[in-house]
Amino acid sequence: MFAVLLPSLLCLAGSALAQNPPLYGPRRSPSPGATTHPAAATAASPAAGLSAKDKAFMKKAAKGGMMEVAMGKMAEQNGQSDDVKAFGKRMVADHSKANDELMALAEKKGVKLPPEKPAKGWTSDKDYIDMMVKDHTKVLAEFQDEAKNGTDSDLKNFAERTAKTIEKHLDLAKETQGKMK
C-alpha cells in the first residue's frame, strides 16, 4: 500500500509546488511565453503603490536607524561620561524599536531595505554627541517632511510618530552637548 501511496503523494506535492510559489528562497520566474495580467502584477507588488520618494525615505531611514543603533552600542561601551553612555543606551533602545517597525512596514509594502553596515570607529564622547546633534537635526526635518508630504498613510503615520522621538533625542543630545563644554 505504501508503495502505491508514495508516488501519488509525490505527484500531488509536485503539482502543488508548481501552482504555488515557494514561501522561502528565490522566487521562480514565470515560464517563457507566459503572460501576466497587469492588474495581477500590481496586486502582487505592494511597493508599486509607493512613490519613489516614499521608498527612498524608507531606505534612508533604515540606514540611519541601523547606524544609530551601532553607534549607540559603541557609546555605551566606550563613552567616558555617564551622560554619553546613557544617551547611547537610549539610542539603541529607541532606534531598535523604530527599526523593527520600519522593517515590518517595508515587508508589508514590498520594499527591500539595505543591509546593515558596520559603524565607524569610536573617537570621543564630544565627537559622538556633536554627530548626534547634527544627524538628529537633519533627520528630524526629513521625518517631518515625510509625515507632512508623504503619499502612503502608513508611512506618514510612522514618520510622524518617530519624528516625536527624534525630537526628544535632539533635545537630549543638545543637553548632553551643553554639559561637555
E-strand count: 0
Could you describe the largest sheet, including whether it forms a barrel?
none
- Average pLDDT taken over every residue: 80
Low-confidence stretches: 1-44
Shape: elongated
Kindly, what is the distance between the CA atoms of the first and last residues, rounded to a whole number of angstroms? 84 Å
So, the CATH homologous superfamily? Ferritin, core subunit, four-helix bundle
Helix content: over 70%
What are the SSEs and their pairings?
Blueprint (H helix, E strand, L loop, with lengths): L1 H18 L18 H7 L7 H27 L3 H28 L15 H25 L3 H27 L2
Helix pairs in contact: 3-4, 3-5, 4-6, 5-6
What structural keywords apply?
73% helix, disordered N terminus, mainly alpha, elongated, single chain, 181 residues, Ferritin
